[in-house]
Amino acid sequence: MTTALTAILVFGLLVFFHELGHFSIAKLVGIKVHEFAIGMGPRLLKFTKGETDYSIRVLPLGGYVKMEGEDETSNDIRSFSKKTVGERIAVIFAGPFMNFILALVLFAIIFYNIGGIPTTTIDEVIANSPAESVGIQRNDQILTIDGVAVEDWEHLVNEINTSEGEPMKIGLLRNNERIEKIVEPQKEEESNRFMIGIVPATEKSFTLAMKGSYQQTKMIFIEMFGFFRRVFARQATTAEVVGPVGIISLVGQASQDGLYNVLYLAALISINLGIVNLLPIPALDGSRILFLVFEFFRGKPVDPEKEAFVHMIGLALLMLLMIIITYKDILTFITG
């Protein structure tokens, strides 16, 4: 029961922010919005404010913002189709963009509340490590490596790891005095990375939390594009793809490990949702943007009914794919 409730809350949060992006920009540019819905299927709750119905529906998967003239011909001056190409692209892009914003916020919450952000000040020197052997001490602040200013802990780790064990000249600040040490990084067999044996001090800071959040989001973007490269190279495996059942299972596992694990998984899923939605696949936001770019260069729009038909076919294929992935997830769940 807890797993199901947590999964519904996670899905609801992701969908709400995605649709809020579409809704906010649509309202900003003056488009008439008939309904803002979270979930699919029959309505559970509904209220009306102004010209827009707000509803929560039975199935906690997906949602939509129903705009005048989005998938049909409309002569209303406030219809989606009457807005400029730039305004319509902004409305469509705002959904995935809000998923990225949500991920940044969730990661920032995690980084701020769990131990803070690692800094370039040393909290601990590991015994019998290269750092200890040359006299690096606790509370030393690392300023430079081979004359290059160290930007943050991630930069420091990357510089050490790419040294391939070659001696490095490390500039330190100790008691307001600048000193230098020559260190030879050693390779750790377990991680297969070069290290000098130091543990960073951490600092709770909103600015640092946002910086750490940005770096984490960037890393996941890189991993996602790496996955797409493997897909096109036919090197990806089915184990790397999960559907709703697989996600619910992951959410359940995360919920057992605490709130911050759930938030981390929600941020990860949010980034994936944003990126996938920008793919040029019919029925997804990326395809709608592609149609609008085509309209811009063509000088006139594609027939709304023909475009709607393309998206309908795309949606049917996506639903079929979702069924296949869900079947795979269920088999994986049953077989353990």
From TrEMBL:
Q: One Pfam family, short name please?
A: PDZ_6
| Known EC number | 3.4.24.-
Which keywords has UniProt assigned to this entry? Answer: Hydrolase, Membrane, Metal-binding, Metalloprotease, Protease, Transmembrane, Transmembrane helix, Zinc
- TM ranges: 89-112, 262-284, 308-327
Q: Which family does it belong to?
A: Belongs to the peptidase M50B family.
Q: Does the keyword Zinc apply?
A: yes
UniProt-annotated location(s): Membrane
**Locate the PDZ domain: which residues?**
108-176
InterPro entries registered for this protein in UniProt: PDZ (IPR001478), PDZ_6 (IPR041489), PDZ_sf (IPR036034), Pept_M50_Zn (IPR004387), Peptidase_M50 (IPR008915)
Organism, scientific name: Anaerovirgula multivorans
Question: What is the membrane topology noted in the UniProt record heading this document?
Answer: Multi-pass membrane protein
Query: GO MF annotations for this entry?
Result: metal ion binding; metalloendopeptidase activity
**Family matches, as NCBIfam families:** RIP metalloprotease RseP
Q: What does the record give as cofactor?
A: Zn(2+)
Any one of the GO CC terms: membrane
GO terms under biological process: proteolysis
**Is the Transport keyword given for this protein?**
no
Identification of the protein by name: Zinc metalloprotease
